[in-house]
Amino acid sequence: MRASDHLAERLAAQGVEHVFEVAGGTITHLLDALHRRGAPRLISMRHEQAAAFAAEGTARIRGVPGVAMATSGPGATNLLTGVASCHYDSVPAVFLCGQVSTSELRGTRPVRQQSFQATDVVAMAETIAKAAWRVDAAGTLPERLADAFALALSGRPGPVLLDVPMDLQGADVGDGVPLAVAGVPAGGPDPEALERVLADLRAASRPLILVGGGVRTAGAADDLRRFVAAAGVPVVHSLMGVDALAAEDPLRVGMIGTYGNRWANIAVSRADVLLVLGSRLDIRQTGADVTSFAGTRTIHQVDCDPAEVNNRVTGCHALIGDLGSFLRAAADAVEEHPAAGAWRDELAALRARWPDVGELAGAAGINPNELMHALSRAGEQATAYVTDVGQHQMWAAQSLRVGGDQRFVSAGGMGAMGFGLPAAIGVALATRGPVVVVAGDGGFQLNLQELQTVAETGLPLKMVVLDNGCHGMVRQFQESYFDGRYPSTRWGYSAPDLARVAAAFDIPSSTVAQPSEVDAGLDALWRDPARPHLLRVLIDGDTNAYPKLAFGHPITEMEPLAKPIPLRGA
Questions:
Q1: Are 70 and 76 in contact (CB under 8 A)?
Q2: Which end of the chain has a smaller Cβ tally under 10 Å, C or N?
Q3: Which class is 191-353 in CATH?
Q4: Neighbours of 369 (CB within 10 A)
Q5: C-alpha distances in angstroms, 485 versus 470, 480, 488?
């Protein structure tokens, strides 16, 4: 069997359904093998970065490592932003790079490059992947592939990059190569640590659970819901945990952090016991004042990665292990909190006092938070919501009402603009249903070319572009710290009429500019649930994402009611 044919067999055996790629000379063996086999299906993207984001999107939904493929040189380097995105958000993926033939590699020669497009992508990827390996002999490819999938799924999931020279792709690897499928071993939690967690929750007056992206990464959303229902303890979530509980769940409080719901941040400040599940407590969740965040409360932190516990916020009781195993054991052992009703009433009162749609009351034109509520009502058929990166991402996370079976996919650690559209392609292929993309005009332009992929595949992407005519999040930062000087965010920045651009790709589109037009625009968006549509929503350029944690303050002190401390050097 040729190495390229074995690779196709391995991907299929592992459960990979789609390989995202841009054609190039050094992956022609791999393209041909996948084409002849017929599965996994090749999805031709228009840029390798987009291929990487699409692979990430499908992996987020299925839990099977996403696969993207690129040719040597610029193709491989274009993948790297997506590799880093998977690494920082713990998404399993295997990235396959073609490479020039082994005889054309530079080796130890003191030259920059021995052959056209020869590039040492392995060295570049080593710090943003769980591993990056070059295959040095055809016979080692089967073992390397098996190891790549096993590593991508083990412990804290993440990406692995394989660089495969072109001559080895066509070489023989022998017959009958085993295709054992990589899985994830799981062990139960330490019984004493589990009992300590449950005892502290029972004894608390104001217990609170913080859910991060690790719950979805562990495939443990159903386990979480069973545990929470049994415990009766309220739940806040990070940006990566928006869809862990359904919006209608009475125990779901809201999002915390830099752009969190104001009432949810106050809830964290009042909690006397905090159970952190699959969240690394990064700066966007805690703010810079970690001493205030920790307070005198008891914090239990459950994570599969010991390096992430007691890193920024110290003094946490660590429980290291598989989150799903912990939640299953906890759900079986927990008792409903006897006094949580009063605490839940207190949180409901906070929410009523600080409604999300009230943060921008009086803003000119369409209120983005109200738009998200309307989008949720119209999107009952959506299988998922996927955001790009920017202000719109925060409005979506604050206000979308994500249903029980719907998913919310967003870029966290890497936070790359341009993520939304290509990631949604992968999500739509994985969910086999309509997907709503929420993007800004700035981020949408970064991978605008993928509209052709949408047009060619006919995927039912419902693209909602909030067009404020600027890079809004950085513009808001400049407003706070640079006396309203807007180089590159307003001055020197522009965007085309994206509805007309979509029309050029033969994708139906429409535009709304006033609150009175929103319902009609959403009706047009969903007129044919099985086909793509782009809705351009004009937002006033001065609209800020509020509330926002006032930098240097505790998470309860948020703009516009509080002011950030001065920025050094501004």
A1: yes
A2: C
A3: alpha beta
A4: 22
A5: 13, 10, 10
Which regions of the chain carry the CATH code 3.40.50.970?
A: 3-169, 366-546
pLDDT tier at 113, thresholds 50, 70, 90: confident
CA 535 to CA 524: how far, in whole Å? 8
Q: What was the pLDDT predicted at 184? A: 56
At 355, phi and psi to the nearest 5? Answer: -65, 145
Query: Please, are residues 162 and 195 in contact by the beta-carbon 8 Å criterion?
Result: no
Contact 81, 123 (CB under 8 A): no
The amino acid at 400: L
Q: Under CATH, which number does the domain 3-169 receive?
A: 3.40.50.970
Residue limits of CATH 3.40.50.1220 in the chain: 191-353
The Cα–Cα gap between 103 and 276 comes to: 52
Vertex 357, ends 355 and 360: CA angle to 5°?
115
Q: For 36-91, what is each residue's pLDDT tens digit?
A: 999 999 999 999 999 999 999 999 999 999 999 999 999 999 999 999 999 999 99
Contact yes or no for 436/385 (Cβ under 8 A)? yes
Tokens of 407: 């998913």
Here the tokens at position 443 are 């981020």
> Can you read off the two tokens belonging to residue 563?
């002011």
**pLDDT for residue 188 is more than 70:** yes
pLDDT tens, position by position, 300-345: 999 999 999 999 999 999 999 999 999 999 999 998 887 778 999 9
| Residue whose pair of structure tokens reads 């929503």 in the numeric block | 537
Instruction: Domain 366-546: give its CATH code.
Output: 3.40.50.970
Beta bridge partners of 267: none
